[in-house]
Amino acid sequence: MSNQWLITIGINQYQHFQPLNYAQADAQGLWNLVVSRGSFMPDRCLLLTDTSPFIEGQSTYPSGENLKQWLDHLCQQAIKKDDLVWLFFSGYGVKWEGQDYLMPIDGNPDDVSATGISIRDIYEKLKSSKAGTILVLLDMNHQQEYQDGSTVVGNQTVELAREMEIPTVLSCQPGQFSYEVGELQHGLFTGALLEGLRSGAGLTLASLKRFLSERVPELSQNYSRPLQEPVVVVNPPGKSHQVILPEQPVFVGSQNGERNSATAQLVGGGTTVASAVAASSVENPFQAALRNQQEAATTTSSTSPSNGQPKPADTAGNDDEDDENSSLWQQILLWGGGLALLLLLLLTTLGRNIFFPATEQAGSGGDSQVGTVTPTGKLTPLDRAQILLRGNQANSYVLAIRQASQIKPGEPQYREAQASIERWSRNILDIAQGRANTRNYRGAIAAASMVPQDPQPIFTEAEKLIRQWTPLAKRQQANQVVLSTAKGLIRPNSASSYVQAINMARKIPQGDPGYVQAQASINLWSQNILNLARQRANEGNFRLAVVTANLVPANTIAYNPARQAIAQWQTR
User: What is an example of a Pfam family matching this protein (predicted)?
Assistant: First the structure.
């Protein structure tokens, strides 16, 4: 089973650069969001900020040395084949001698090559991890005086992303600048990113690109900032419909093997601390920090960045009274965590107008605070539609579209409702394409069939894809019947029955849906034949062992070992 990993870095108090206001809030905001919506297990979400806590006795202070050590550990030891990995960075980026660098908290513009972390090194580490899906999100601030030569920060990153086929999102075009917005309490790009993930626009790379390409310039205009346009690099283009969030929510396992709860606290003032109940049955590289982040909630933004969060104190004693009460307290904490998660999900669903006002507030400045919003006390049809959204579930978008369609022309929120309907229709189609990319053609057709007739262009595209996927789904179903029939031919301890099953499975043509599964079964069955031959050789029946090994078909993983074994047994 694949895992989901988040590495999120946000740095405010640089030692050699002008401090940033909201980089730490950017990193913490993304951590809170993906954990609260259940997309990632909190024990696989690493937070590296000015004040993040120790983990297993290891500092998460975002110095160059620490960042390199954490990347090495995760890419070499923790991340496995087919895992999903997100890397997010909010801080300074610098170009030096044609190379792009991310600057850690102790990065020095006068010695970039020694104190910065090159983008190439980061991408090579991520590529070496063998992760199945990688997404890099870079909200890079940069200062004009630290750019040399004729090119600017970002050009090399774009080239590397294409070359190494790592999907990458940059906060702005090379030559533009990435801005912070006091009203959002975030960088402009990250504010749009969080909004898109909340609204379901980040299910695939295609939908995320579409949302950010529209929303980031819109926010820069709303908040009177120079134009900022994100860059989304996807190579090959077929990865555009790759699902970048899990199809189903990820739950943390409890001590009895059932679901556990994960909560994320939202604290104002630039310092947010996450807390979670980690799975005791899963190896957890971040377990110590997760157990003790509740204690870390008392830490304020005035904490010395050189120390990060204090190390958690040892738990003392085996007091009998504590043992008797521990079960009660565990239940209280579990229910409390569940209520906190429910409240957080409600707030993130309804909170778009709070965190992302449609128009700039009067007298706003770069460091101004979020204005006070008075709740109306009554949900609008569009509010009710947004409540219905459930991650990657296509039917939830259908229900939301039906609800939003109740808003008639001339009514308040009509234009916003129409824009939402178009976006949600596109999200349904993205879900369908994501399923088709994994060869789940029946699921893809089911999702595409839910696309409403209006907007017409999206409906037309869905109909075209359904016609394309229908014959593939039929072949897939037929090939599944073939493979099931092949499996039914197998009899234990009968090598010839494995041969019959292999011959049946080989009827599935290369390139057809189900071909990969058929080849995997063929290799498994050929190995079973060889195992039977070895068993007979161990019993001293070398003649029968040779006869059995000769049944191993060519072009299977067991063929060469079988020929070697035959050569040995024929001399006995």
Answer: Peptidase_C14
Same domain, yes or no, for 35 and 129?
yes
Check: CB of residue 186 under 8 Å from CB of residue 23.
Answer: no
Cβ neighbours of 415 (radius 10 Å) = 11
- pLDDT tens, position by position, 431-456: 888 888 777 888 889 889 999 998 88
Among the listed residues 281, 275, 192, the one whose alpha carbon sits nearest the alpha carbon of residue 232: 192
Torsion, Cα of 230, 235, 237, 242 (10° steps): -80
Looking at the fold, whether 59 and 204 belong to one and the same domain comes out as yes
Give 124-134 pLDDT, tens digit per residue: 999 998 888 89
| pLDDT tens-digit map of 262-314 | 223 322 333 333 333 233 233 344 444 444 443 443 443 333 333 343 333 33
In this structure, how many other beta carbons lie within 10 angstroms of the beta carbon of residue 341? 19
Whether residue 555 sits in one domain with residue 471: no
Task: Choose among 481, 526, 469: nearest CA to 507.
Answer: 481
Compute and round to an integer the Cα radius of gyration of the chain.
28
Contact 233, 168 (CB under 8 A): yes
My answer on whether 451 and 502 are in the same domain is no
